[in-house]
Write a structure and sequence with these properties.
alpha+beta; 6-stranded mixed sheet; 4 helices; globular
Length: about 150
């Protein structure tokens, strides 16, 4: 939807925005990364994603092209990633906390891992604009991936 000035005004809740992203992300990964547009349509153009710096795909990702870079790096690291038993907690109209159990298999080592993950997502104009991911144990993630953790500087 758009208003007269041409800016987007969407009537989606934060939860609906997150669910739209998850569906597009699953499609992107299953297609082998062929069409990022479906994902781009579910995230704000000014998206900022924060990942633990000690991970091989860690860092701060700003904007669509940078977010795509992160998604591709995640796909290189993990053969599969599933979120089990999600619990969503909405905080006001623009923030959602997602608590899940991450089940994943590393591409290089074939090691499987299971751990709690918390994501805090802020939504603007019906699209995620800020995403912070908190893993229970980044040392275990790096071990499963066969990586020595990067040091924070």
């Amino acid at each position: 939807m758009s208003n007269v000035a041409g800016t987007r005004t969407l009537s989606y809740s934060a939860l609906e925005a997150l669910q739209r992203f998850y569906a597009a992300e699953e499609q992107y990964v299953s297609s082998g990364g062929l069409d990022f547009d479906a994902v781009a349509n579910t995230i704000h153009p000014d998206i900022v994603l924060f990942q633990a710096a000690s991970l091989p795909y860690g860092g701060e990702y700003r904007g669509h092209s940078s977010f795509k870079n992160w998604l591709d790096r995640m796909a290189e690291a993990w053969r599969s990633v599933r979120a089990q038993g999600p619990v969503f907690i909405e905080h006001g109209a623009d923030t959602i906390v997602s608590l899940v159990t991450m089940e994943a298999e590393a591409r290089a080592t074939r090691r499987q891992i299971q751990m709690p993950v918390c994501q805090v997502v802020r939504v603007q104009d019906g699209l995620p604009i800020e995403w912070r991911v908190f893993y229970w144990d980044t040392v275990a993630l790096n071990d499963a991936l066969g990586h020595a953790p990067r040091r924070n500087r």
